[in-house]
Design goal:
alpha+beta; 5 helices; Aminopeptidase
Length: 172
Amino acid sequence: MRPDAGAVRVVDYDPARADHRAAYRALNLAWIERHFAVEPRDRLELDDPERHVLAAGGRIFVAEVGTADGVRVLGTCAMLREPDGACELAKMAVDEAARGRGVGRALGEAVVAAARSLGAPRVDLLSNTALVPAIALYRALGFVEVPLPRTDYARANIKMVLDLRGVAGGGG
């Protein structure tokens, strides 16, 4: 067994890795299709993340674990850049079998750390209150609910923000 087997680590999405591309798309489609309908913006970001996330200045984080056979992707999360310099946490998905292991928290913390390193004033996210575990995670990371603006997503019924101005060190 590999020495790093069992340790969850968060790495940058590698477009050259077929497992990263497949997991980003499949894990996100699984939760969206389970709870909602896949929307046009979903298709753009999931079908061509290099163009619609990475080329636009965003990043995608991948949580993976070493196994006896190599590496297994447990979850993914995107960080999109907003025109005002803020960042958006988007497309967080964790494999159902890996839930409860801190994978979502690790991905969320990676987005917050990356946004801080860019000097972003805040991290925004859109979600749906039916996703109770996700909302609880966002609150645990320090996000607070703010008024919901007009959005491209029909499923979005909550906007949450983590203010990074004047906040030193780690998140919640």
